[in-house]
Write a structure and sequence with these properties.
This protein is an all-alpha fold and 23 residues long. Helices cover 43% and strands 0% of the residues. The chain is flat.
Amino acid sequence: QRVKRRWDPSDFFRHSMSVRPRN
């Protein structure tokens, strides 16, 4: 597992903006 750092809300938001939701 390359996910070493903890999951942060900030990353989720940024990821959401970076990747367009299929919804």
